Here is the input.
Amino acid sequence: MTPDVSKADVNFLYYAFRSPKQLDYIENTAIQTGVPHTNLGILRKTPIDLPSLVTQRQIAAVLGALDDRIALLRETNATLEAIAQALFKSWFVDFDPVRARQQGLAPEGMDEATATLFPDGFEESELGLVPKEWRLIPLSEAFEINPSRKLKRGETAPYLDMASVSTQGHIVGAPIEREFGSGTKFVNGDTLLARITPCLENGKTAYVDCLPDGQTGWGSTEFVVLRPQPPLPSYYAYLLCRHGAFRDFAIQSMSGTSGRQRIQNDVLGRYPIAVPPPALADAFGQVVSGLQSTIAANHATAQTLATLRDTLLPRLISGQLRLPGNAPEEFEVIAKPRACCVRTGT
Here is the structure.
């Protein structure tokens, strides 16, 4: 179905078909045989209210500015987390700064003060090679696994189900208020790791930073709650849970009947953790906590913009709300440059 560009703007049509009115029409006219569906014939007959072409383009520009900003924030968050994960792997898995100093080289990507926090060689430990003055200990000694949290039965508190946890990124869906019954309990700074198949294999992991200060939340019994012991910063646990070698180890620790296998905490607790001296752990914490805070702030901004877009969209498309002539220019402050093309969603 090719639109007449002299009457309809393609980006306006994209948003028109996302409006509740059009979605309701498509649902109500869908073919109900088997799986409900529509077809090209039905879509060709779909009534569309078209304002002037100028107005269409203004509406599409405003909604497009919001979508572009949301997309940019999400892309930025993906980049920031990739940086945090790369830093974690370099410092605590590959020991790149230690190897550089061992060769008499300056570690890359850090100032001299941070570089001197790393030793210039390795030593043997019971669990293998470790940087000098570091401790290589099992996870059960480095972390709290399912730490004790206080929440009374029947008390209303923020609740997270498994569906709220993403397979990528530390952000969770908005918690809902629900009376506590039975489940895992957590606070800000805890990491949630899915313990059951296939959620673990799919990568469901989260860092809790969405609760009010001092609030305890709760969620599915299929979460393992992890909290690093000092000197490791709290975000270390989340980055560890995203690390491929750790995930493989966790998956291999699962046992149980087919389709209902779960992580065994005692096996998970054997995973070796290289713990640096406090000064180095603190330096890492300062860097990654800044990244985590920025990710959380970007997510909150994206959520606010998405709510604004979803509020404006039906009102603009229906004509209930009209834009002043300079509205598209005012929205440029939140938009990145965008090509004129048919949108594929955000």
In short: The first helix runs from residue 10 to 16. Residues 78 and 169 are 7 Å apart (CA to CA). The chain has two domains: 1-119+279-346, 139-275.
